[in-house]
Amino acid sequence: MPKTANQSFETRAVHAGEPRPRVDGAVTLPIFQTSTYEFHGQAGYHDIRYLRLNNSPNHLALHAKLAALEGSEGALVTASGMGAISTAVLSVLKSGGHLLAQRGLYGGTHTFMAAELPDFGMEVDFVDLHQPAEWARKLKPNTRAFYVESMTNPLLEVGDLPAVVQFAAAHDLVTLIDNTLATPVNFRPIEAGFDLVLHSATKYLNGHSDLVAGVIAGRAERVDTIKRKLDHLGATLDPHACFLLNRGIKTLPLRMERHNRNALALARWLDAHPAVDAVHYPGLPGHPAAARAQALFSGFGGLLSFDHKGGAAGAHRMIERLELAAEAVSLGGVETLVTLPAETSHVGLSPAQRSELGIGDGLVRVALGIEGEDDLLADFERALSE
Ligand code: PLP
Questions:
Q1: What's the pLDDT tens digit per position in 359-379?
Q2: What angle is formed at CA 380 by the lines to CA 375 and CA 382, rounded to 5 degrees?
Q3: How far is the CA of 42 from the centre of ligand 1 (A)?
């Protein structure tokens, strides 16, 4: 494996984890499409070379590359972002454990915690990241972990992440952070003191809207414990998806630069548009988390949302007129996508619950791709003009 410790993030994205010498001289790591390998007397079950045990050459290359990018000792890939989240949370909490989790998490994560954890004998309390006094009130003798996101979806809130790390250290809690929206290009939670970093690699890490995958990164011992859980639960990423994810990660820094730039440009433009009420993007000085995001992140990511003055009807009219941006859920791909969270990601909540979270019927979420900035602005200009 090449030595990448002192190399730039861009160089590590390309070279870290790639086997040396190259496999049969192949410049890109081939796909090892085999479920099993010759037995060579491995001592324990988890070291047997078998695809579900997450140790194919495609897995090992990705694990090392992701650890090099997150600045962690170890990393694991999983069959989806939810596979990473569920495996890590189940592994850290154990039966009888209690979790503190940020209010307003990604809907799939929130539902997993609220609906599934009790079936495993685990409890969760959701807390407001802006109200640290509430964290202490919700703490229990069996609280084991604190779960947050680096930025929330769709309003791009940024909690007081250093305070979460301090609170967890004071109360002996494991910290887990979903870093999907920031990516290690914009924020590296391990450097900020978090224990476990999670990703939906489906999004920016892969970057091409053509697979689902997840990532768990952290201290080697902790990641190894979670790998054993993953071996048993079976949410293994298949080698072809590993290959595609590895290919996607090589261009992550280049793509994030453009996602960051396009989102900032559209946020500024929308902020001045008469058909728009409020723009939610932490790169804008008016965003409630602007100062915190500025202090923690080196870029603000490719996701923004805004309230259309014409409500749901106005937002629908705009979406119909967009030519470049497609209406679809998900984010992090090279193409720009728009969606109305009230009808998609948050449709399971009542209107009252949505309005409590600040998600109105006319809220439009835009996941900026890497197209040319002028073309994107022209697309929204045409679509927003009545
Ligand atoms: N975390 C965040 C922030 C997400 O946006 C998503 C999916 O949208 C997930 C986790 C779940 O990832 P996946 O769909 O890859 O299971």
A1: 999 999 999 999 999 999 999
A2: 95
A3: 35
